[in-house]
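Researcher: I'm preparing a figure for a lab meeting and need a structural model of a single chain. I don't have an experimental structure, so a prediction will have to do for now. The sequence is pasted below. Please return the structure as tokens so I can convert it later.
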Amino acid sequence: MERYNVCVPLQGMAFTLEERLQLGIHGLLPPCFLTQDVQVLRVMKSYETRSNPLDKYILLMTLQDRNEKLFYRLLTSDIEEFMPIVYTPTVGLACQQYGLAFRRPRGLFITIHDRGHIATMLNSWPEENIKAIVVTDGERILGLGDLGGYGMGIPVGKLALYTACGGVPPQQCLPVLLDVGTDNQGELQGPEVAITQYLCAVGQPQGDSDSPPISQQSRCNLSWLRPSTVVTAFSPTTHHTRPKEKWQLCDHICGPAVSLVHGQALVSAAVELLNDPLYIGLKHKRVRGKEYDDLIDEFMQAVTDKYGMNCLIQFEDFANNNAFRILNKYRNRYCTFNDDIQGTASVAVAGVLAALRITKNKLSDHKFVFQGAGEAALGIAHLLIMAMCKEGISHDEAVKRIWMVDSKGLIVKGRSHLNHEKEEFAHEHPHVKTLEEVVQIIKPTAIIGVAAISGAFTEKIIKDMASFNERPIIFALSNPTSKAECTAEQCYKLTEGRGIFASGSPFSKVTLGDGRTFYPGQGNNAYVFPGVALGVIACGVRHISDEVFLTTAEAIADMVTEENLVEGRLYPPLSNIREVSFKIAVKLVDYAYKKGIASWYPEPKDKEAFGANQRSRSQRQMEASSHTAIRMLLSRLKLVCRIAEVHLGR
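Model: Understood. Here is the structure written out token by token.
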């Protein structure tokens, strides 16, 4: 049975008779030989029986564990269907429930107590040729706050898209969690918010006269939801009603916190991680200061010592106070970037550049107001400045076109306790407290929401934007869907179809009363990081500048067709994302050699052919990986058996 456990997960019933005989597993599988196409069909049938995204996520992660080759075949067969499951918005819910959804470890878990031993831990990882790492400390997972050890779902999901969208072989990818503790003592909010998030992810209850719409999540009162309440659930992708299902409230095993049960899936509404017996991370407060910095230093050094200076390290979901500091500290020393700052900036600017083809003017003709002044807002603002300077205006003139609103109101000169990053965008202006007032006074052409405040773009704000502008730009970029500043439907209906909309999580198409149908653009970072990774790895870039992300933004915008724009799409269809990633990689390879930041020489004459060759080689490596893994695992199994025999004195 050991041979069965080692070999079968790698290909399942796709093993030929010859392979089964060679591996000693003949008779341990049913006699039928199933091609991968048939196996994909089998998984799809099982997938379609799952009625909510969390169940679908668990199914796909289980498949990834038992048959990685089939997992990626399935993912690439319909990336538009599966991306919202393996990543946003479902991955946020999965991270909240990581202790319940946990099946087997995937990735490397490094704790604050492992200082001095990180190099040894990297040596424990079975793959030697790592090209890309996604690392998080779990402190700011999407818009959900500090999830500590539950944050591992983010690196795993990101790297799945490295492979599915960018073609980076999975054996060259390493997800890492740096666990320094958690300060979460109930940060996942009360039952109303959590249940709202879950119902929003599964499908908004509509059509039942007894159940209010979930669209106004910030003011949602779930007092109507009682034990055995029957709710009609709608599919978020088709808006077709599913059969009525029972949603019940019960007590969480950890105490009086309310939870939502659907079948076997328990969805906690108010988890206190430090007191949760199911929590898989360190159960103490976050370690900060010098000890934390020393851990990051040791990790960066250990990675480059083992995998080389060209190993790409992507920082993900670090808190604001650490994200900028870490990026600025390492960006010129290692091959690294922060996706929340630079990736989000790139995809947002790509959407704005595409929108210029609708507004028919220059970027510097626009005035931007940001709801939020954290990593994402500042990253987008700096890339917008770079793009405006490229048009020919000065840095100072570009800054004047950007306004920011944080939790204390409009950022203005003279306001106390502004950090260095915010000070750059502080203007001479009286203090204004609310976003509604700011929009009324500043009269922006574009508003961009990145503060994870659900419903922040109120009806008044959207209508005001439509009154100031013929084609207002309204980007509700916060993740997950439950944190979006407004819905696509609100934007299109309140602006009478004139709004130019993009969101961070997917929204369904919207049909107005006059028959016009719009397909909202999803500004997903997945348009950016797989292509950036593929390009950086292909030519051995050692330092990633902001120009890389502006080049990426321009490449994405260039791939938006006129037909896409008419439909309301500011991004290429997700179904084309593999081609988008490839074209980004080709442009970055060309940029890297022109700027002298590539390290692989001689320089290829035909960059597109070079990129195609890299992609083909990656595909061949993926095809060969299962056979290599079989040989490695069998070799290790023999060694383990030999050690056991010696230990038992045989």
